[in-house]
């Protein structure tokens, strides 16, 4: 599955004092999508840790386009845009019906769990993910192809 998706209904635990979804929830949904997608491909946390390797988040970016509320039915989409050496750039989109409500990205880095040092993503792991460009027709068909303003900085 190149573009992972899951749907759910926003519960009261996600609502803040302003009576809309708290910003931290979007990050939680993004992380869930990333972890579930990797697990569905056989290289989730359990499998990576068995190899003494693990993905760690280096940087997150979220653009809030529309507020969400308790009872909203949302769908989170996630896909890998590129994988290069030890890094993977993962994108996210959240929709309510046909409306895009947020976009996000995470730069994930692959590390040796024992040493904590960055390592190249092993070929047998990298090959499980298909890189999807922002203008991919599948993203267009889903209504989630949209230029994003985030690019990781490789210093």
CATH topology title: Thiol Ester Dehydrase, Chain A
Strand element count: 5
* Count of helix runs: 4
Task: Provide the CATH architecture.
Answer: Roll
Largest sheet: 5 strands, antiparallel
CATH superfamily: Hotdog Thioesterase
Rounded to the nearest angstrom, the distance between the terminal CA atoms is 32 Å
| Shape, principal axes of CA atoms | globular
Q: Stretches where pLDDT falls below 50 for ≥5 residues?
A: none
Provide the number of structural domains.
Answer: 1
CATH class: Alpha Beta
Provide the succession of SSEs.
Answer: EHHEEEEHH
Question: How are the strands of the largest sheet arranged?
Answer: 1-3-4-5-2
- Please report which band the strand proportion falls in: under 5%, 5-15%, 15-25%, 25-35%, 35-45% or over 45%: 25-35%
If you average the pLDDT, what whole number results?
94
Radius of gyration (Å): 16 Å
Q: Give helix % range.
A: 10-25%
Class based on secondary structure composition and strand pairing: alpha+beta
């Amino acid at each position: 599955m190149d573009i992972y998706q899951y749907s759910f209904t926003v519960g009261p635990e996600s609502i803040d004092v302003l009576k809309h979804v708290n910003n931290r929830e979007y990050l939680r949904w993004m992380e869930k999508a990333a972890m579930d997608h990797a697990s569905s491909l056989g290289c989730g946390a359990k499998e990576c840790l068995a190899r003494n390797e693990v993905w760690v988040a280096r940087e997150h970016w979220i653009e809030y386009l529309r507020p969400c509320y308790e009872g909203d039915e949302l769908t989170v989409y996630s896909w890998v845009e590129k994988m290069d050496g030890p890094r993977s750039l993962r994108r996210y989109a959240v929709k309510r019906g046909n409306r895009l409500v947020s976009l996000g990205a995470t730069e994930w880095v692959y590390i040796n769990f024992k040493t904590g040092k960055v390592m190249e993503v092993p070929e047998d792991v990298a090959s499980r993910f298909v890189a999807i460009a922002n203008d991919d027709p599948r993203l267009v068909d889903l209504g989630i192809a949209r230029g994003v303003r985030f690019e990781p900085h490789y210093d």
